[in-house]
Amino acid sequence: MRFEEFSFSSTLLDGLNAMGFNKPTPIQEQAIPVIMQSRDIIASAQTGTGKTAAYLLPILEKISQNPNQHINTLILVPTRELALQIDQQVEGFGYFVGVSSIAVYGGGDGATWDQQRKAMESGADIVIATPGRLIALLATGAVNFNQLQHLVLDEADRMLDMGFYEDLIKIVNQLPKERQTLLFSATMPPRILTLAHKILKNPEQISIAISKPAEGILQKAFMLYDTQKVEALSYLLNQADYGSIIIFASTKDSVKKLESILKRHGITAKAFHSDLEQQEREHIMREFKAKKITTIIGTDILSRGIDVEGIDLVVNYDAPPDPEDYVHRIGRTARAERTGTAVTFINERDQQKFQSIERLIGREIPKDRLPLELGETPTYEPLDKRGKKRPFRRNFKRKPSSGNRFKKK
User: Fold this and answer.
1) Fewer C-beta neighbours within 10 Å, C or N terminus of the chain?
2) Are 370 and 380 in contact (CB under 8 A)?
3) Residue 141 — pLDDT band, cuts 50, 70, 90?
4) How do beta strands 73-76 and 217-223 pair?
5) Are residues 300 and 225 in the same domain?
6) Number of helices and strands (H, E) in the chain?
């Protein structure tokens, strides 16, 4: 299938060609015709499937055919990084179709607030916003959504994970009831379906099977105790000269704590979390993309809000809570047909969780042993035929070491 089959205008097709869009992805093939028919959608599609263009292209086509001076589309996203990425895509197409946009997110100074407020007052065609900042702007009475035609919830599952449910409902209640609503989510837990039932009308359901990890990713895991994780990470980082590294921890507090711990062990890494000022977050990301910072630490939000090629190593310092999060995390490496390494630390509690990951990707991930100097480790035990977890055994009868024998130089 080709983009010409969607009956897009020649200007939009010129933009697609200029930006290197050759043929639609599966999510685009399925979603674009439905959106062009002005039907609501609930779509299951992960990062990297082309879902952003799947909703942007038909919306841009509609706006270009019926331009006005009002906000036409509101796109709600979980993070500032994703808002900026989408805004950049709109800006790229906007050169060809004459559509304007504004990214609305928290942080920054008073000048940023004024810029966002004025852009919304003047009627930017597309507003890409994080829920918290949008609610603050709504409270000023400066935002007029009376002419809104499209509402998009991108990465809805992540917004709910971040506690935005009440904010989303509050925003939706201030929008016109007659609108087209598009909900995109990587996973479909019951609360997503509950949200969809509240805000969508007879939606078309589209499901794109989760992609398997790229063939270029070398996947492996270490069984260990929590007390061994720091030394195991230090050991791992000394095994090869990795250029760019992402370390995933379970919570924002864990990210902050791990940055301090690694610093004491001679490993320089930058924590990336929502408590940082926006300018500082943008600075860290620029430095990381420019290879001036080699290692960053973040939560699962980072796995969906980062667009950086050339990442050599992904470390799941804490095992991901959901099997699909594993695919998102390790998908940060081996992009654009490159190669990369993904390592997961598995403690005593994570075994069953990790076996769910292996079932999802359809393969067993090799479990490497730590050096003897790091002490005894748990044994990885497969579930028995009844699906019950066997008790852990210890691999080696040796005492855990004290101190760091693998300090980063």
Assistant:
1) C
2) no
3) confident
4) unpaired
5) yes
6) 15, 14
Domain hosting 178: range is 3-207
Interatomic CA distance for residues 276 and 295, integer angstroms: 17
Residues 127 and 191 both lie in one domain: yes
> What six digits make up the tokens of 87?
């805004």
Is 97 in contact with 130 (CB distance < 8 Å)? no
Residue 247, helix vs strand vs coil: strand
Instruction: State the amino acid at position 133 in one-letter form.
Output: R
Q: How far is CA 41 from CA 35, 57, 219, 389, in A?
A: 8, 15, 35, 40
Cα dihedral sign, 13-16-17-21: negative
In a domain, residue 212? The reply is no
Calpha distance 247→236 (Å, rounded): 12
Q: Kindly give the pairing relationship between strand 313-316 and strand 340-346.
A: parallel
With H, G, I as helix, E, B as strand and everything else as coil, classify residue 214: coil
**Helix-strand-coil split of the chain, %, nearest 5:** 40, 15, 45
Residue 261 lies in a domain: yes
Residue identified by tokens 């940055």 is 259
Tracing tokens 């359901």 back to the chain, one arrives at: 205
Strand partners, 218: 341
Q: Same domain for 238 and 181? A: no
Specify the 3-state DSSP secondary structure of 94. Answer: helix
State the Cα–Cα distance between residues 308 and 121, nearest whole angstrom: 33
Answer yes or no: are the C-beta atoms of 377 and 350 closer than 8 Å.
Answer: no
Q: Which of 358, 341, 351 is nearest to 220 (CA)?
A: 341
Q: Based on the fold, state whether residues 263 and 144 are members of the same structural domain.
A: no
Count of structural domains within the chain:
2
Handedness of CA 219, 222, 228, 231 (dihedral sign): negative
Per-residue 3-state assignment (H helix, E strand, C coil) for 315-369:
EECCCCCCHHHHHHHHCCCCCCCCCEEEEEEECHHHHHHHHHHHHHHCCCCCEEC
Q: Are residues 162 and 243 in the same domain?
A: no
Cross-sheet strand order for the sheet of 245-248: 270-271, 295-298, 245-248, 313-316, 340-346, 217-223, 367-368
Task: Give the Cα separation of 191 and 253 in Å (integer).
Answer: 25
74 Rama class: left (phi>0) / alpha (psi -120 to 50) / beta: beta
Residue 299: closest CA among 247, 246, 249, 244: 249
pLDDT tens digit string along 61-117?
999 998 888 899 999 999 888 898 899 889 888 788 989 999 998 876 677 788 888
Do the domain assignments include residue 381?
no
